[in-house]
């Protein structure tokens, strides 16, 4: 049996349950295999006295007959559902779960009336792209809230390993701009493992259960096979979606990562594929980053719809797709990537990871290109994030991070003196003037609440911070020699021991 991981979306469901009090249904929307069903069943089991679970992917004929025969009589419908399932429902203390609701249009239509009925909380799961494809004539009910589920982030990955203390510690380091010193290397190794394994629960479970990257690789290949099958079915069997999805690693490996339509079909224009790209984006298999034409906080108003980059929604899946599953020993490949021994663009994984983190924070991904005044040199900012007042440029560096001409020109041209810019890199945190060099594992802290809250370096010191960092560093060294019972030992490269098979 797969283990159940703690997920942040659980708290979002709790908030909905408390605030809605039965007035609205909720739809958990996300990619296949991201963990929607698991978290919804766990939530219903823990937070209600009872629940009825209906999986419409299996098309349960008895349940469908009850729904269709009693569409106008909800009291009788639920009486018969209780009799069929053997589950007693309690007013305002039970839930009804519609899993993969897109597979049965009448259930989707019923949501409005079930919310008005109000006796039981209604929880749905599905993919919006599939819902809109199969239920074209049914609008989203106003009585329904939607929340998006993303792959597991770094904190959720650490939770799965039993580590609940590292991220709060890192958050304070970020807020007060204090370097981690010797501890940085250990956390960077953990993050490198996370990038390779990815955030799909199946892959994380396989990695932790078998202590093997090969096991995670096997799980990811299965997920990619499902995604490829899904893309082939998206628009009446049109293989364009599959071609675009399969070509993502090739697009990202180039210096210029913008979508190139000629890679799909020679002589074609990007506008031809906007519909296909939108479908892939709505499936949550990919994150699309669009080019802004103006450096202003209202970024969506200046998007160039024909210029965009496509990132995979999960960086672990990108790794597997990049090597096409032809990896005899993933741990050897991983060590080669870490040391730079392989002829592969490591920057594509770092940039995809930053895109994944920003998307999980709720940002609409945007990059920016501009010409230097009086010059034909085109500069590019990897990501721009904003709120109503702030515009924050982000540059991603997988190698040497000290040189960033495009970011410097952007700051000179568009940014008031004293405002922050970020360089995301693999080194420790440091500050140089208006530029914060941020370890990639701290990207998770760049939510909108962080705007204006980061203190100037040295302005405030954490009480006992350096002492605690040294203690953690000493603990790290001790665990490498004598790992505690139940925790997988680390090799010098920070990997679990190789699978003897």
Question: What does this protein look like?
Answer:
With 501 residues, the protein is of the alpha/beta class. The chain folds into two domains: 9-149, P-loop containing nucleotide triphosphate hydrolases (Rossmann fold, 3-Layer(aba) Sandwich); 154-450, no CATH class. Helix content is 42%, strand content 16%. It has helices at 9-20, 36-47, 61-69, 74-85, 105-117, 128-134, 154-160, 166-176, 183-197, 201-210, 213-233, 240-246, 248-252, 274-282, 315-322, 330-339, 346-360, 405-414, 465-481; strands at residues 25-30, 50-55, 94-99, 121-126, 144-149, 286-292, 303-312, 366-371, 378-381, 383-386, 391-396, 421-425, 430-432, 435-439. The strands form three sheets. The chain has a five-stranded parallel β-sheet with strand order 2-3-4-1-5, with helices on both faces. Strands 10-11-12-14-13 form a five-stranded mixed β-sheet. A four-stranded mixed β-sheet has the order 7-6-8-9. α5 links the parallel β3 (94-99) and β4. α10 runs antiparallel to α11 and α11 packs across α15. The longest helix is centred in the middle third of the chain and has 21 residues, at 213-233. It starts with 8 loop residues before the first helix and ends in a 20-residue tail after the last helix.
């Amino acid at each position: 049996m797969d283990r159940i991981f703690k997920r942040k979306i659980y708290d979002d469901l709790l908030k909905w349950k408390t605030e809605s009090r039965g007035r609205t249904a909720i739809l958990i929307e996300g990619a296949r295999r991201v963990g929607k069903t698991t978290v919804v069943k766990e939530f219903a089991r823990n937070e209600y006295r009872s629940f009825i679970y209906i999986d419409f992917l299996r098309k349960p004929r008895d349940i469908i007959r009850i729904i269709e025969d009693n569409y106008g009589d909800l009291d009788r419908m639920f009486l018969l559902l209780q009799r069929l399932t053997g589950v007693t429902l309690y007013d305002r203390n039970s839930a009804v779960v519609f899993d993969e609701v897109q597979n049965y249009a009448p259930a989707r239509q019923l949501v409005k009336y079930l919310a008005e009925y109000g006796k039981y909380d209604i929880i749905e799961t599905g993919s919006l792209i599939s819902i809109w494809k199969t239920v074209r004539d049914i609008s989203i009910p106003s009585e329904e809230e939607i929340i998006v589920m993303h792959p597991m982030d770094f904190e959720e990955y650490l939770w799965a390993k039993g580590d609940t203390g590292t991220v709060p510690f890192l958050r304070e380091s970020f807020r007060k701009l204090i370097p981690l010193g010797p501890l940085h290397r250990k956390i960077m190794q953990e993050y490198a493992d996370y990038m390779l394994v990815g955030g799909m629960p199946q892959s994380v479970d396989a990695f932790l259960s078998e202590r093997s990257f090969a096991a995670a690789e096997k799980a990811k290949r299965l997920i990619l096979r499902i995604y490829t099958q899904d893309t082939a079915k998206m628009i009446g069997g049109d293989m364009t979606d599959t071609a675009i999805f399969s070509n993502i690693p090739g697009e990202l490996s180039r210096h210029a990562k913008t979508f190139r339509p000629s890679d799909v079909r020679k002589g074609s224009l990007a506008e031809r594929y906007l519909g296909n790209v939108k479908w892939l984006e709505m499936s949550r298999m990919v994150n699309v980053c669009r080019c802004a034409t103006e450096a202003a906080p209202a970024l969506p108003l200046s998007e160039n719809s024909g210029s965009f980059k496509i990132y995979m929604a999960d960086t672990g899946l990108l790794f597997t797709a990049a090597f096409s599953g032809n990896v005899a020993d993933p741990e050897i490949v991983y060590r080669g990537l870490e040391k730079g021994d392989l002829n592969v663009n490591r920057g594509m994984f770092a940039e995809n990871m930053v895109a994944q983190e920003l998307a999980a924070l709720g940002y609409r991904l945007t990059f920016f290109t501009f010409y230097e005044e009086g010059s034909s040199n085109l500069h590019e900012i990897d990501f721009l994030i904003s709120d109503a007042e702030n515009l924050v440029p982000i540059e991603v560096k997988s190698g040497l991070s000290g040189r960033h001409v495009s970011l410097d020109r952007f700051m000179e041209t568009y940014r008031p003196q004293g405002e922050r810019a970020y360089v995301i890199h693999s080194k420790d945190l440091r500050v140089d003037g208006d530029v914060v060099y941020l370890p990639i594992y701290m990207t998770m802290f760049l939510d909108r609440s962080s705007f204006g809250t980061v203190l100037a370096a040295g302005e405030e010191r954490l009480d006992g911070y350096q002492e605690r960092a040294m203690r953690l560093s000493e603990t790290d060294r001790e665990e490498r020699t004598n790992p505690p019972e139940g925790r997988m030992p680390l090799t010098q490269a920070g990997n679990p021991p190789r699978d003897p098979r």
